[in-house]
Automatic annotation (TrEMBL):
Pfam families listed in its UniProt record: Aldo_ket_red
A GO molecular function held by the record: oxidoreductase activity
Signal peptide: none
Location of the NADP-dependent oxidoreductase domain: 15-316
PANTHER family per the UniProt record, alphabetical: GH17980P-RELATED
Lineage top rank: taxon: Bacteria
Descriptive protein name: Aldo/keto reductase
InterPro entries with a match to the protein in the record: AKR (IPR020471), FDH-like (IPR044477), NAD(P)_OxRdtase_dom_sf (IPR036812), NADP_OxRdtase_dom (IPR023210)
Any Gene Ontology CC annotation: cytosol
Coiled-coil positions: none
């Protein structure tokens, strides 16, 4: 079975939930607050859930797993990630993991391991934290931050073996670096990739190399971080909004204002256009969005279902704001 056939066999909903927030991303939340967020996602019809050991040093997996254990296993798709193992932190002195933006005790540390044994161990440990045996989709997480060549030589073959053994249904890469995504698609037998922030309504660098590589190889795409660090999450963008790891460049701010104006002309909420834009491209199977409050999850689901006139995309393309 080819990668495209395996990806098609995995019934991936158009809207998914990224569970970094329930790992205390940017702010701490209680178990009850995290449960309310996940419950709102489920009640809104979301049936694809993505997590990772990186998110809250395992807290996201534990909370998401506890929630999903109350749901029929056949009714949702679950993905997690490999590449970083969680091990005791000998430097722990009561601090928090805020250097990585997670408000959790830093009693554990992330240890890169792209070996076959490390990949298998990561999957097993994620299963234990989740309390769920079957993982549908396994991504290699940010391999370019460690050693992309090593990932291509060791990690991806190990993941292909796990798939061949039936341990997971599909495999891929999750990254916010277009070069790494394109290299992985061309070099490994991947089913799906998670493109984080590189194919959004605001900017589309992945359209140059990643999307064409996926079309050539029959690799499916999951779009994540489609709000560009929150810049597209409201109808009235803020100039002081966070953009990845720094301030928003002037040229992107001007572009954002033009996009918002076109959306306003068509009476379309900017966040609705942001969620639905990636799905206009062939090969994009799902859009994953997060949220730290139940009302955000309900609103995102409504935005995903909102009818958007074709003229909006045509006008954005005519102004050179999205690919034609």
């Amino acid at each position: 079975m080819s990668g495209s056939e395996r990806a098609a066999a995995l019934e991936l909903p158009a809207l998914g939930h990224g569970a970094a927030n329930v790992g205390n991303l940017f702010r701490a939340m209680t178990d009850d607050e995290a449960w309310a967020v996940l419950d709102a996602a489920w009640e809104s019809g979301i049936r694809y859930y993505d997590t990772a050991p990186h998110y809250g040093l395992g807290l996201s997996e534990r909370r998401l797993g506890a929630f999903l254990q109350t749901k029929p296993r056949g009714e949702y798709v679950l993905s997690t990630k490999v590449g970083r193992l969680l091990r005791p932190n000998p430097q722990h002195a009561g601090g928090l993991d805020t250097a990585n933006d997670f408000h959790v005790p830093d009693d554990l540390q992330r240890v890169w391991d792209f070996s076959a044994d490390g990949i298998r161990r990561s999957l097993d440990e994620s299963r234990e934290r989740l309390g769920i045996e079957r993982i549908d989709l396994l991504y290699l997480h940010d391999p370019e931050r460690h050693d992309l060549d090593l990932a291509l030589a060791e990690a991806f073959p190990a993941m292909e073996q796990l798939r061949a053994e039936g341990e997971v249904t599909a495999i891929g890469i999750g990254s916010m670096v277009s070069d790494a995504l394109a290299a992985a698609v061309r070099s490994a037998d991947l089913d799906l990739i998670m493109v984080a922030g590189r194919y959004t309504l605001l900017e589309q660098p992945a359209a140059v190399d990643v999307l064409p590589a996926c079309r050539e190889r029959g690799t499916g795409i999951v779009a994540a971080s489609v709000f560009n660090s929150g810049l597209l999450a409201s109808n009235e963008p803020r100039r002081d909004g966070r953009y990845e790891y720094g301030q928003l460049p002037d040229e992107l701010w001007e572009r954002l204002l033009r996009i918002a104006a076109v959306c306003a002309d068509h009476g379309v909420p900017l966040p609705a256009a942001a969620i639905q834009f990636p799905l206009q491209a062939s090969g994009v199977r799902s859009v994953v969005v997060g949220g730290s409050r139940p009302e955000q999850l309900r609103q995102n689901a409504a935005y995903a279902a909102q009818e958007i006139p074709e003229e909006l995309w045509e006008n954005l393309a005519a102004e050179g704001l999205i690919p034609a």
